[in-house]
C-alpha cells in the first residue's frame, strides 16, 4: 500500500534511509535513483511521503534540493535532524594503510576532508553513499574504500576500517519530510513545544532596496527568520530566488502581517510548508549558546 511507503534517494543503507528509519520507522521505504525520482514517486501516488536532505552543518546546503522544492508540487510537513557518523568501509582483509581511494557522494566527501588529507586518500565521486559502498563491494579491490554510514557496511558485507571520521563532532544533516498535501492543523511538536516553522521562496521586485524592505516586516513584527538563502534561477545571474525559514504559523497575527508586507516588495511568493520545529532545534541552540 502506498500509504505506508516513504521514498528516499540512494541505495539501502544511505543516510536518507537512516533518516526514514529514525523518523518514520513504521513505514516501508522505496529507494530512488535521483531526487527527481523521489519527488515523482510521491507525486504519482506510489509513495505517501518523501525524505529529502536539505542541508548539512559541515558541508552546507544540498543545492539541488533548493531548485527542486518550489516546482515539486509537494509540501513540507515535518523536518528531522540526523547525526552523521561517517565510516571508512573496505573489503574484508583490508586495512586503513591499504586505502588509496575513497568513494562517496560529494556532500559526504566534503565532511571528512581532514581524514582523507591526513591519510593521503584520494576522493572519488560516487552517485550516493550507500551506492558507493555497494560498488566497493562489487569491485573487491583492497585499495578502494567507501565513505558511508556503518549500516551500509553491514548491508554490503564491508569491514569498518575507521569510524566517526567526520571533521566536526556535531556533523548533522537536516531532512525535510514532504507529502502531496499540506498540513496546517498542528501547533506543537512531539515534545509539546509550540514553535512552528514556515518555509517559503520569493522573488523580490526590481526596485532599489527591495530585499531590505521585504525583510523589514519580519523585524518590525517580531518574527524570527532562522534561514535566508539566495540562488540563481535558470542559470541567469539577474534572476535570484530566495529561500527562507521563519518561526511561526501563517495564521499567527504577527506572521500574517510580515507576509503581507513581504508581498508589497516581491513579484512572487510561495509557501513550501508549515510544520512543527524538530525538538533537536532547541537542543542545538542551547548547545551552541554554551
Automatic annotation (TrEMBL):
The reactions it catalyses are:
prephenate + H(+) = 3-phenylpyruvate + CO2 + H2O
Q: Which Pfam families match?
A: PDT
GO MF annotation: an example = prephenate dehydratase activity
Q: In which pathway does it act?
A: Amino-acid biosynthesis; L-phenylalanine biosynthesis; phenylpyruvate from prephenate: step 1/1
Instruction: Give an example GO biological process.
Output: L-phenylalanine biosynthetic process
Q: Which UniProt keywords apply?
A: Amino-acid biosynthesis, Aromatic amino acid biosynthesis, Lyase, Phenylalanine biosynthesis
Note whether Nucleotide-binding occurs among the keywords: no
NCBIfam families (alphabetical): PRK11899.1
Stated name of the protein: prephenate dehydratase
